[in-house]
Amino acid sequence: MALLEVNNLDIRFAVRGGDLRALREISFSLDRGERLGLVGESGAGKSVAAFSILNLTAQPGYLAGGQILFEGRDLAAMSERELRKIRGNRIAMIFQDPMMTLNPVLTVGTQMVEALQSHRRLSRRAARQIALDRLKQVQIPSPDKRLDQYPHELSGGMRQRVIIAIALLLDPDVIIADEPTTALDVTIQAEIMALLLDLCEQRNVALMLITHDLGVVSQVTQRMLVMYAGRIIEQGPTKEIINDAQHPYTQGLINALPQMGDPGHRLHQIPGAMPSLNRIPSGCPFHPRCQFATDQCRTDMPDYVASGNVDVACHEVRKLIEADTQPRETHS
């Protein structure tokens, strides 16, 4: 049994004029110690999927269908009191902006101690010692000094390390990292991702990494999901998808990487933009931007087809696979 299993997740937002579907039949699993990447452009539904796991989707968003199973128990069916025992304790989350996560009027130590005491019966002294140990683990210089500092007194890289330390406070089984290096420079990004990967491997923690950076995904994750307009359009082993992407959208994302272009020439880009929730095209939602789109793509939503170890939602990929499996005529 998978540690975390999401089945046919359907998230909608109730607005005037009718519901908007933010996630459409999302299904995936995460095993203990596994590293999973969610990739796609802004608006693809990556963060909504992450927030939905811990029932953090703000109103007017709501769960319209599906299951979110953690060790076989449905998180979507739990009461708020039961979820409090899971959030931050068994499943921790690292948000995009540490300054939005940390309380600016409380010291780092106060916030870490409060997080520990909300889940464990610990004295303030014992909780402070655990907080100090976690800051050491994330390689913050002078950790005893940082405990008594306020968030604004720390650099961006240090603040993100504090957030990771807070996520590790209660020895979670799963860490969900939502664009954890967005606001950092390239050097600090690499340090933070290396640190996160090392900590997950040491502690056998499952990692769900949400990002638009395929370079990071290729280096950190073992499996990846590619999302478009609220739907998973390709999923499988990271190396297989990066080396031989099947869906035209995934191919476009890879071709848009700077290293895929020629020096001195414009970077490749996917034409058009992600559709808004109230203007999702009929059929395959990617068809207005796809150079391979046919009439079938414009009218029918594609089902998944297996291409090796990768599942792809694409009519044209299905046709190619079916053509390869057709028996060839022999002439005597």
UniProtKB/TrEMBL annotation:
First-tier enzyme category under EC: translocase
GO biological process terms, semicolon-separated: peptide transport; transmembrane transport
Catalysed transformations (reactions): a dipeptide(out) + ATP + H2O = a dipeptide(in) + ADP + phosphate + H(+)
One Pfam family, short name: oligo_HPY
GO cellular component, one term: plasma membrane
EC number per UniProt: 7.4.2.9
PROSITE patterns: ABC_TRANSPORTER_1, ABC_TRANSPORTER_2
Entry keywords, A to Z: ATP-binding, Cell membrane, Membrane, Nucleotide-binding, Transport
Start and end residues of each ABC transporter domain: 6-254
UniProt key word DNA repair: no
Main location: membrane
GO MF annotations in UniProt: ATP binding; ATP hydrolysis activity
Membrane topology designation: Peripheral membrane protein
Matches recorded under SMART domains: AAA
SUPFAM superfamilies assigned: P-loop containing nucleoside triphosphate hydrolases
Keyword Membrane attached: yes
Localization in the cell: Cell inner membrane
Similarity annotation: Belongs to the ABC transporter superfamily.
Reported function: Part of the ABC transporter DppABCDF involved in the uptake of various di/tripeptides. Is also involved in the uptake of phaseolotoxin, a toxic tripeptide inhibiting the enzyme ornithine carbamoyltransferase. Responsible for energy coupling to the transport system.
Subunit (UniProt): The complex is composed of two ATP-binding proteins (DppD and DppF), two transmembrane proteins (DppB and DppC) and a solute-binding protein (DppA1-A5). Five orthologous SBPs (DppA1-A5) are present in P.aeruginosa, which increases the substrate specificity of the DppBCDF transporter.
NCBIfam families, sorted: oligo_HPY
Name this polypeptide is given: ABC-type dipeptide transporter
